[in-house]
Structures are given as structure tokens and as C-alpha cells.
Design a protein that fits this description.
The protein has twelve helices and 16 strands. By secondary structure, the chain is of the alpha/beta class. It is globular. The relative contact order is 0.22. This is DUF1501 domain-containing protein.
């Protein structure tokens, strides 16, 4: 089923075989016990990306321009930081702006969905001859697995989306490639059937291991090792099934996040971060508003605002916000000009992102656009600047190199640097 984006971006497909294969590819040696995961040290750094897919409007979120020809019908409201105003469509976020840093001067170059997403997630413009890894793979590689018994790079896709991205790690290899969960759920057939007793399952597993060991002795290779390991890792994922069961949360918590898909997915993201996963990406769709931009943003931001605030509060209450970088981004913004269908079109030249948590100076605002939002007026930044900032915020050196095939490749774009004004 296609996503309900205006541009009909196609999701991927998930299956038990796919999960086992990807788990093999992940090659995460030694999953931690559930007990170790529950005792995860609060100092472990993590990254959460909330991806507003389709291209969220900066004018209806972080950089409103009320009472101008481009501003639209919504007001700008006061926030918890005197002098900083955001759209009235984000009343709950407004009360927590002291926890956020806003970047209002982003020029990400491309107005294409696929290219824009890649630019935002890699911090690079497209270059011939090389594919750069996405931030999720980089975070999983450099932050490590921590205390988690789960993959280090997980993306939660909206209802109708499913499967494994697989290509986001590029030269970093399959160990840190993203595992995607359609509708926030692992495949239903991953777990042991209810009518199969534990003893029978254990006996079947022992027999399988015996056959595999016999096969591997004569045909041992990296591929067979990965295939064999996939089942051991899948077993451990099964032991972590409770992490995916958000029904274990109280009704009060579920209500705070919202009884809709995005609320459930963001609650799952919090549980995954709590379990020690290094990187989680949650997508919220339907922001490609070429028509009826204002009605769509009322609906979509109505879903986004309350659970986003609940997440920030939960991370703060659990002592995790100072070690978890939260980034709200999209693949592009939307045109200041309102078209004849009351929509806004693709726009990458002057838009906004928001950050919170680890290493971020809450309440900071960097850059500005002109009075109508048609151009950056001060402190233009690129996705490369943001990528450096993400890494620095979680304590990583963004100036180091990877060495695929013994060839140095900078971790982040060497032509850019971190946005120092928002780093704590």
C-alpha cells in the first residue's frame, strides 16, 4: 500500500526472512541481557530523529511570518523563551522551547524528496562515485551497541510502510544498516507460535545448530557465519519482545502520547531508546501539502505536537534527555508563496529544524530569514553543518575519518563545521 504522501513515496516490505537476514547482516555480537538493558547507564549517548516526511512547512512550525503575504492564516505565539515565537499549531512545543534549539536558516539545496532526504540524513550533497552513510548508521557505528540487546539503528515507519532500508550504511557495512519496522511492529511470525512448547522449540533449535555446525565446518565463510548468527540474534530479539509491546504502558501514558499511529510509534521509540538502542528514526507522513496546506498542517501538527511534548517530558523525567539528541527534520521545507490550491510547494532554500537534548543549548535560536521567509537573512547553514553538530552534541569527533578500503573518508563534510551557537 503506498503512503498517502502527495508524491506517493513507496515504502519497503518486511518479512520474517528479511528480519533474520538483516539481523545476520547487523552482526551485533553478544546481545545484552534484558536485565542489562533495563540498567542502561543514563550517560549512554543516543540519537532520535523525528522525520516529518513530505516536507513540513517552516512557516506553520518554527519560523512563522504572520500578517505578511506569505504568512498564511495562523498566529505566532509566545513560548517559554521570551522573544521567541513559533506557530500557534504547536502550543505544547511552545511551552518547552527552553529545551529546544531552533535553526531557522537552513539551505539544503534540493527540492526533490529522495535527494533531499539523502542530503539531510548524510549531511552531504550527492557526489559521483561515492555513497555516504546516513546518520543512523554513523551513530550505530560510533556510539556502539551500548547495553542494548537490539540492533543499533532502527527506523519506525508509518502504517503501510514496512521493511528494511538496508542501503543507509553504505561502506560502513551491513552490521549498522537500518532495521525498519512497519507500523512499529516486528514481523508477526518472528516469535514462537503459541502452540509450540518451549522445550520443543529448544530441541528444534539444538538440531538446527547441529546441522549448521556440520555444514559450516566444510563450507565456512563470512556468509555462512552471518547466516548462522542470524538465528542466534533472532532468538535474543525474541527475548526482547516486551520492548515492542507498548500495551505494557499505562493508559495514562498512552493517552499522553495519543491513541494514533504517530503517538504509538513515538512511545515505542522512547522504549527503544530506554532499552539502549543507539539510533531511532520515527517518520510521520503527509506533509507534502501542494494543496490545502493549512488544513493538512492543522491535522498533522495536531498529531505531532502533544506526543512530541510528552516525549521530551518523559526523557527529562527519566534523566535521559541530557544524553539523548532529539532532532526534528524533514527532507525540505515549503515555499513561502501560497499557490492557487492553497498549498505550498517544495522549498529547500530557507527553512528550519529543531534540536533538543544531548549537547544542545536549550532556548537558542540560530539564523533568521527575511520578513517574508523567502531568503536566509543571517547565518546560513547547510545539512553538513547540522551533521557536524549532531556528532559533536553526542560527544563524537566530527573531523575524524572512516577508512573504507584503506582510503580516508571524512566522517562529516570537511567543508562544513558544527553550529557552535547551539552546542552546550
Amino acid at each position: 500500500m503506498p503512503c498517502q504522501y502527495a508524491c506517493h513515496t513507496a515504502p519497503h516490505a518486511v518479512s520474517r526472512r528479511g528480519l533474520l537476514g538483516a539481523t545476520a547482516a547487523l552482526g551485533l555480537g553478544g546481545f545484552a541481557s534484558a536485565g542489562a538493558a533495563s540498567e542502561l547507564k543514563k550517560s549512554q549517548k543516543r540519537v532520535l530523529v523525528i522525520f516529518l516526511a513530505g516536507g513540513v512547512s517552516q512557516l506553520e512550525t518554527w519560523d512563522p511570518k504572520p500578517n505578511t503575504e506569505t504568512g498564511g492564516p495562523f498566529k505566532a505565539i509566545q513560548t517559554s523563551v521570551p522573544g521567541t515565537r513559533i506557530s500557534e499549531l504547536l502550543p505544547h512545543a511552545a511551552k518547552r522551547i527552553h529545551k529546544l534549539a531552533l535553526v531557522r536558516s537552513l539551505n539544503s539545496v534540493s527540492d526533490d524528496h529522495g535527494i533531499g532526504e539523502k542530503i539531510m540524513l548524510t549531511g552531504r550533497r550527492l557526489e559521483p562515485g561515492i555513497e555516504y552513510p546516513h546518520i543512523g548508521a554513523v551513530a550505530a557505528k560510533l556510539l556502539g551497541g551500548g547495553a542494548s540487546a537490539l540492533p543499533g539503528n532502527i527506523q519506525i515507519l508509518p502504517r503501510g510502510g514496512s521493511g528494511f532500508g538496508g542501503r543507509d550504511a553504505t561502506f560502513l557495512g551491513p552490521k549498522v544498516a537500518a532495521v525498519s519496522l512497519g507500523d512499529g511492529k516486528p514481523p508477526a511470525d518472528l516469535f514462537r507460535p503459541k502452540d509450540l512448547a518451549g522445550d520443543a522449540d529448544a530441541a528444534r533449535e539444538a538440531f538446527r545448530r547441529k546441522l549448521n555446525d556440520r555444514f559450516a565446518r566444510s563450507r565456512k565463510s563470512a556468509a555462512t557465519d552471518a547466516y548462522t548468527e542470524s538465528y542466534a540474534q533472532a532468538e535474543r530479539v525474541v527475548r526482547q519482545a516486551d520492548v515492542f509491546d507498548i500495551e505494557k504502558e499505562s493508559p495514562k501514558v498512552a493517552d499522553r502520547y495519543g491513541r494514533h499511529d504517530f503517538g504509538r510509534h513515538l512511545l515505542l521509540a522512547r522504549r527503544l531508546l530506554e532499552a539502549g538502542v543507539s539510533y531511532v528514526k520515527v517518520s510521520h507522513s503527509n506533509y507534502d501539502t501542494h494543496h490545502e496546506n493549512f488544513d493538512f498542517h492543522i491535522e498533522q501538527l495536531g498529531e505531532f505536537d502533544r506526543p512530541f511534548a510528552a516525549l521530551l517530558d518523559d526523557l527529562s523525567d527519566r534523566g535521559m534527555l541530557e544524553s539523548t539528541l532529539v532532532v526534528v527534520m524533514s527532507e525540505m521545507g515549503r515555499t513561502p508563496r501560497i499557490n492557487d490550491r492553497y498549498g505550498r510547494d517544495h522549498w529547500s532554500k530557507a527553512w528550519s529544524v529543531a534540536l533538543a537534548g544531548a549537547g544542545v543549548k536549550g532556548g537558542a535560536v540560530v539564523g533568521k530569514t527575511n520578513a517574508t521567509g523567502t531568503a536566509v537573512a543571517d547565518r546560513e547553514v547547510s545539512s553538513g553543518h547540522l551533521f557536524h553538530t549532531y556528532l559533536r552534541a553526542v560527544g563524537l569527533d566530527s573531523t575524524k575519518n572512516f577508512y573504507p578500503n584503506d582510503r580516508p573518508v571524512p566522517v562529516a563534510d570537511p567543508k562544513a563545521s558544527a553550529i557552535e551557537e547551539i552546542l552546550a
